[in-house]
Write a structure and sequence with these properties.
Elements: H1 2-24, E1 53-64, E2 70-81, E3 87-92, E4 95-96, E5 105-112, E6 117-122, E7 127-133, E8 145-146, E9 152-164, E10 167-178, E11 189-198, E12 203-211, E13 215-225, E14 241-244, E15 250-251
Parallel strand pairs: 7-14, 7-15
Antiparallel strand pairs: 1-2, 1-13, 2-3, 2-4, 3-5, 5-6, 6-7, 8-9, 9-10, 10-11, 11-12, 12-13
Length: 252
């Protein structure tokens, strides 16, 4: 009888072991998918001296789906520049428009043309990475006409002037047509950009970009104040650790 019980216990143990092994056999049929990350360029703020301002930048990204539906993402963030040309910018997440989420700040950037340094301050980690900084206070547009290497054609047309948040802005529309094969396209690809530029502030107050590959992006600068901003914004936040990048690494 004892031998029978021993055999039964052994069989039960083996059955339990087999069940455990069967349960631990992986059921996945592929490796995890890679992560795709896409950035959306925002406005460029040059280190222009004697032209301070504070403003809110609102970005909307509209993507049209195959069935005709749309997806709209947005964020809004604070930017400013002081009289010395130092630039402060928030970076916030893109979230669904008219949803429950609000754009969350995740980084601030401080650019100083006098010290040629730019700080990237990660808010969660409370760490600022500092790199070399070199950015022009003025710039020249590429000429209209044929693009280099036969890539396509650029057309530019003036749109007059208007007021954006009480600041005068000059409008320009650019249409770029890329020839087949230039960007993997099998037929001509048309990209349009519209800019409303403030000579006083040296920035685009409105940018509209329509690119079939990425969707339509609208960037608007609002709540513009031309007063000198608080100097505290241009200092490394209290309690943050500063870590230097390699000396030869410069960012715009």
């Amino acid at each position: 009888m004892r031998r029978f019980e021993t055999v039964c216990l052994l069989l039960f143990a083996l059955a339990a072991l087999g069940f455990s092994v069967a349960q631990s056999v992986p059921t996945t049929t592929h490796a995890p998918a890679g992560v795709t990350r896409e950035t959306v360029p925002s406005i460029f703020i040059p280190p222009l001296a004697n032209s301070p301002f504070t403003a809110t930048v609102v970005m909307e990204l509209l993507q049209t789906l195959e069935d005709g539906g749309t997806v709209t993402l947005y964020n809004q963030r604070v930017v400013m520049r002081d009289g010395a040309g130092r630039v402060f910018q928030e970076r916030r997440t893109l979230v669904p428009k008219n949803g429950q989420q609000q754009p969350e700040p995740w980084r601030v950037e401080i650019s100083d043309p006098a010290t040629h340094q730019k700080y990237f301050c990660e808010l969660q980690r409370r760490v600022c990475h500092v790199s070399g900084y070199s950015a022009p206070s003025s710039f020249a547009l590429p000429p209209a006409g044929q693009l280099p290497a036969g890539r396509g054609d650029l057309r530019r047309e003036p749109l007059g002037t208007t007021l954006v948040s009480g600041v005068e802005a000059e409008g320009t529309r650019e249409t770029t047509v890329l020839n087949p094969g230039t960007a993997g396209n099998d037929r001509p690809l048309s990209i349009t950009r519209e800019f409303w530029y403030s000579r006083r502030l040296g920035i685009n107050l409105v940018e509209k970009r329509v690119d079939p590959r990425h969707g339509a992006v609208t960037i608007t600068v609002s709540n513009i104040s031309q007063s000198e901003p608080d100097a505290a914004y241009f200092a490394v936040p209290a309690g943050f650790t500063v870590m230097k990048q390699p000396a030869d690494k410069k960012v715009p």
